[in-house]
Amino acid sequence: MPAKKQTVAIIGLGYVGLPLAVRCKEKGFNVIGLELDEKKITLINKGESPIEEQYLYDNLPNNPVNATSDPTEIRKADIVLICVPTPVDAQHNPDISPVRGACTMAAENLKKEALVVLESTVNPGVSEEVVRPIFEEKGFTVGKDVFIAHCPERINPGDPKWNVTNIPRVVGAFTDEGLKKAIDFYEAIIDGAIKPMKSIREAEACKVVENSFRDINIAFVNELAKSFDKLDIDVRDVIDGASTKPFAFMAHYPACGIGGHCIPVDPYYLIERAKRAGFDHKFLRASRAINNSMPAYTVELLQDELNKLKMPLNGTRVAILGISYKANVDDDRESPYYDVKIALEKHGAVIVSFDPHILDKSDVDSLEKALDASEAIVLVTNHKEFDCLTGRFLAKHNIKTIIDGKNCLDKDNIKEAGVAYKGIGR
Question: Which member of 151, 206, 256, 262 is catalytic?
C-alpha cells in the first residue's frame, strides 16, 4: 500500500507525538492524533502548536493534523504509534499506566493486520510482559492479526540541527514481518539511518542505556564540581582542557540539576527491572543520588556566598531565573527549579520566580521586575534572554550575589562589577 494511502494514528500529542504527526503528514500519510487535553486539541486543529518548538512553528500550519479525543478514530489506522509519557512517582518507581491505557485503547479499536509501534521509553521486557498480552487478551495473534514493534523515541527539544526528521532510530519487533513493516514506515518518514535490532528487548534497552550513559557522565562531573570547589579549581576550565584530547574523552558539564523526561527518569526503569531480575545497579543508583543532590547543593552555595556578605539566607529576597529544564524551551518536566525552590523555602528565603518561556508559572512578567524585587539570584536555566546578565547589569539592579547554576555567565566580568559570583565547580 503506498504511503500516501496509509493512515497513521498517534496516541499522545506531546513533545514526541506531535512532531511525529506533523512529519507523517508532511510525508504524505493521513494522520489522526489522539489526545486527552481538549485545549491542546483545539490549538492543534487551528494549526497552532501548544509546544514551543521551531519545527512545529514552521511545519504544523502547512501540515494540519486532525486531533481528537475519540478513540474509535483508531479504527481507520494502518499504523498506530504510542507516544505517551512513562514517568516515575515520588519514590522513583516507574509508572507504565499510561502505556497500559494507550495499548488498551488501541487494542479495543484496532483493525486487523495493523502495525502498532511503542515509542514511549520503557525498560527491557515491557513489550513482552505488558504490551503483547493486552493485544492477545483482545483476541489478536501477534505476527498475524497485529504486528507489534518498539522504536524508542529520540527527540531533543530546542535543537536547531537534530529533530524528528533526521535523528537515526533503532527498531525491534516480535516477528521478522513486523520488523520489516516498522523499518519501511520509519524509512518513509525519517532521513536518518534506521537500525534493526535482533529483538524487541534489545530495542527497549537502547534508550535506557543512552540516557543512563549521560546520567553517569553528568554525575561524574557534578562530583568533580563539588571536589574542585574544595580544591579551588575551575571545573569548566579543566573540562575544556581535557576536551582537547582528540579521542576517548567526551565533555559533559556540571549544573544545578538534571531535568527533562529522559535522563532523570529512564535509569530508574532499568534499576527497578534489573532489581526484579536479581541484579543491583549500584553504579546507576549512585549516579542518580549525586545528580539528585545538586539542587540542594546549589542552595548551599548561595548560603555560603551570603554568609561572606554577612547576610542570612532566611529573609533574603532571591530570584530564581528559569523554570524550564533546558534553554529556550517551555518544558518544565523534572526541572531542577522545583527542588531549588523547595530548598530555598526551607531556608526561609523570599522567592520570586521568572521564566520568559513559562510566564504562567512565573511570579512576574519581566526580568527587570524579578531583579528589582531581589538581592540574590539563582540561575537555573540558561535561556538566551538571560545573556544580558553582565556585571554592570546586575550591579545596576543592586544584586549582591548570583549563583550560576549552568556556568554560562562571565564570572570575571561579574566579579569586576562588585557582584559576588559562584558557579557549579567554579
Answer: 262
If you ran DSSP here, which 8-state letter would residue 33 be given? E
Q: Are 380 and 405 in contact (CB under 8 A)?
A: yes
The pLDDT tens digits for 314-366 are 999 999 999 999 999 999 999 999 999 999 999 999 999 999 999 999 999 99
Burial class (CB within 10 angstroms; exposed 0-12, middle 13-18, buried 19+) of 347: middle
Distance separating alpha carbons of residues 19 and 23, to the nearest angstrom: 6
Task: Give strand pairing partners of 30.
Answer: 7
How far is it, in rounded angstroms, from Cα 331 to Cα 126? 26
Compute and round to an integer the Cα radius of gyration of the chain.
Answer: 23
Is-catalytic flag, 388?
Answer: no
Q: What is the pLDDT of residues 172-212, one digit of tens each?
A: 999 999 999 999 999 999 999 999 999 999 999 999 999 99
Q: Are the C-beta atoms of 68 and 32 separated by less than 8 Å?
A: yes
Which single residue is written with the C-alpha cell 546578565? 389
Say if residues 200 and 174 touch (Cβ distance below 8 Å).
Answer: yes
> Residue 91 is placed in which grid cell?
519514590
Q: How far apart are CA 265 and CA 87, in angstroms?
A: 7
Helix and strand element counts for the chain (H, E):
16, 13
Report the alpha-carbon distance of residue 156 to residue 144 in Å, rounded: 35
Q: Taking the complete model, does pTM exceed 0.90, yes or no?
A: yes
Structural domains of the chain, ranges and CATH numbers in brackets: 3-197 (3.40.50.720), 232-426 (3.40.50.720)
For β-strands 146-150 and 350-354, DSSP reports them as unpaired
